[in-house]
Amino acid sequence: MLTNLIWWIVVGLIAGWAAGKIMKGGGYGAAMDIILGIVGAIVGGWIFNALGIYPGGGIIGSIVVAIIGAIFLIWLTRLLKKA
After folding, report:
1. Which of 14, 59, 77, 82 is deepest in the core (most CB within 10 A)?
2. What pTM does this model have?
3. Is 9 or 68 the better-scoring residue by pLDDT?
């Protein structure tokens, strides 16, 4: 259980930081990067599943899915802020 929590935090931190760099040029701070990455992993998993795409397992696949999900969240948030 503890290792799963650590896994989610590590993947979340990496994905949140990367998405922040890609979308903004900088991260959002460690805590927000972790949250963004974890939520991004959930959203990314849902998007990939809806499209019928099943990336390989392991940490790299998890990080890629989480980054794509986090980028989508950042884009959606910015879109809603403009409306």
Report:
1. 14
2. 0.83
3. 68
Sign of CA dihedral 49, 19, 32, 75: negative
pLDDT tens, position by position, 4-30: 888 888 888 888 888 888 887 566 777
What is the C-alpha separation between 47 and 57, in angstroms, rounded?
16
d(CA 44, CA 29) in angstroms, rounded, equals: 21
Q: 9-43 burial string, b = 16+ CB within 10 Å, else e?
A: eebbbbbbbbbbeebeeebbeeeebbbbbbbbbeb
Place of tokens 């990067």: 33
Rounded CA-CA distance 79/52 in Å is 26
* Single-letter residue type at 38: I
Q: What H or E segment, with its residue span, contains residue 10?
A: helix 2-24
